[in-house]
């Protein structure tokens, strides 16, 4: 049992979350999370490691942005081949490929592109186009990265626990029921400013003290893509990278992330744009999120979270389940249908403005979503 956790002193968390051990005896969960499982056990290089050791021919800063994207896309093809080898077990951390780090790498190309994007920010579909070096965009954070807390999270889904979770300030959504509204909305810049080196140190400490993964969350991690990518330059331990997000990234941001993330933990909240706009101020929600989920699932393992909102079974939960079943490879993903919604933040303060969500979901509503998901062949039972 202990060989599952190459770095972990498994004392406390194994008592608190015995399901985090037991889950791996479920062969179907193991199959669907097979890449994550390999990296978690250090049996395969994380995808950011492959990007870091894949040589780029030119110094990225010498190229204009179009040339840089062309180079990125060319290296993406190489990266994919190497990832496939790693999946088959024919590329390991002990191979010559990982012996010496090139001066310029695929990762350096990504970092340079991210640094350019943050100066005309379009990491997410808000596309503020502001220079965040001069000040914040809609997400409330400038070009600095603000970390509010980081710790071994024992409350995540069983395969992820203990999860080395880093909470970033700022968010590109305005969810009226946000549970983390202090860091996402009210004081996003109240956290500690961390640069890429410090962020790498944080990840290292989390991993060597037992984290199964590094869990980037917020708020939303998207505004910090530039710092996160650069932190991988300094990160010298192998660890699965987990993207815990509302998935509202632009195609450009998705390209930068797609091949450095090992496991995706997207929130899929709404089944239609009207609810997304009303409750999270997120236009074009369904189109953007489905587009990004399709890319993500082709680039790593995936656990989709769906929070059941009271009164939103017909308009959101059921359409979300239908979209999962029709647009994604349903036999490769796991879903967590979450029952823990409670009125928070603005809904708690002004319940009359959003009356249908000013209560907990009913058992009958949850049952209806579970039954519907089951009828579509969605696997949620092990995690919900
Ligand atoms: S991350 Fe999104 S919300 Fe924030 S500045 Fe960039 S485009 Fe705007």
Task: Note the main sheet.
Answer: 8 strands, mixed
Number of strands: 8
Distance linking N and C termini: 24 Å
Oligomeric description of these chains: single chain
Bound compounds, each kind once, are:
iron/sulfur cluster
Uncertain stretches of 5 or more adjacent residues: 1-6
Report the average pLDDT across residues. Answer: 96
- Tell me the number of helical segments per DSSP (H or I, 4 or more residues long): 16
Helix amount, in percent?
40-55%
For the biggest β-sheet, the strand order reads 3-1-2-4-5-6-7-8
What would a concise description of this structure say?
With 384 residues, the chain is of the alpha/beta class.
Describe the model.
The protein is an alpha/beta fold. It has a domain of 265 residues. The chain is built from 16 helices and eight strands. Strands 3-1-2-4-5-6-7-8 form an eight-stranded mixed beta sheet, sandwiched between helices. Helix 11 links the parallel strand 5 and strand 6. The radius of gyration is 20 Å and the shape is globular. The two termini are 24 Å apart. The N terminus is likely disordered. The site of iron/sulfur cluster has 15 residues, from loops.
């Amino acid at each position: 049992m202990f060989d599952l956790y190459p770095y972990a002193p498994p004392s406390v968390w194994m008592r608190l979350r015995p399901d985090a051990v037991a889950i791996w005896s479920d062969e179907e969960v193991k199959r669907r999370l097979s890449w994550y499982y390999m990296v978690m056990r250090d049996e395969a290089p994380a995808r950011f490691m492959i990007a870091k050791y894949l040589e780029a021919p030119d110094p990225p800063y010498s190229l204009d942005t179009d040339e840089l994207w062309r180079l990125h896309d060319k290296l993406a093809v190489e990266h994919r081949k190497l990832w496939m080898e790693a999946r088959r077990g024919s590329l390991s951390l002990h191979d010559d490929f990982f012996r010496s780090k090139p001066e310029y790498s695929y990762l350096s190309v990504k970092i340079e592109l991210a640094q350019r994007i943050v100066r005309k920010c379009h990491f997410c579909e808000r596309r503020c186009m502001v220079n965040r070096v001069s000040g914040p965009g809609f997400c409330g954070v400038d070009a600095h990265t603000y970390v509010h807390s980081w710790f071994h999270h024992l409350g995540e889904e069983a395969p992820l626990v203990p999860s080395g979770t880093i909470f970033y300030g700022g968010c590109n959504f305005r969810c009226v029921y946000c549970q983390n509204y202090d860091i996402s909305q009210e004081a996003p810049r109240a956290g500690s400013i961390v640069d890429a080196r410090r962020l790498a140190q944080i990840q290292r400490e989390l991993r060597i003290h037992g984290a199964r993964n590094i869990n980037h969350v917020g708020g939303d991690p998207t505004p910090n893509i530039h710092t996160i990518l650069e932190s991988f330059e300094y990160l010298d331990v192998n660890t699965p990278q987990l993207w815990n997000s509302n998935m509202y990234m632009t195609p450009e941001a998705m390209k930068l992330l797609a091949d450095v993330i090992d496991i995706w933990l997207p929130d899929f909240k709404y089944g239609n744009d009207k609810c997304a706009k009303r409750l999270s101020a997120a236009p074009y929600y369904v189109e953007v999120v489905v587009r990004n989920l399709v890319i993500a699932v082709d680039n790593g393992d995936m656990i989709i979270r769906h929070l059941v909102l009271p009164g939103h079974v017909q308009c959101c939960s059921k359409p979300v389940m239908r979209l999962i079943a029709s647009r994604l490879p349903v036999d490769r993903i796991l879903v967590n249908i979450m029952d823990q919604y409670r009125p928070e933040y603005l809904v708690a303060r002004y319940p009359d403005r959003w009356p249908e969500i000013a209560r907990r979901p009913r058992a009958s509503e949850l049952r209806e979503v579970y039954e519907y998901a089951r009828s579509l062949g969605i696997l949620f039972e092990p995690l919900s």
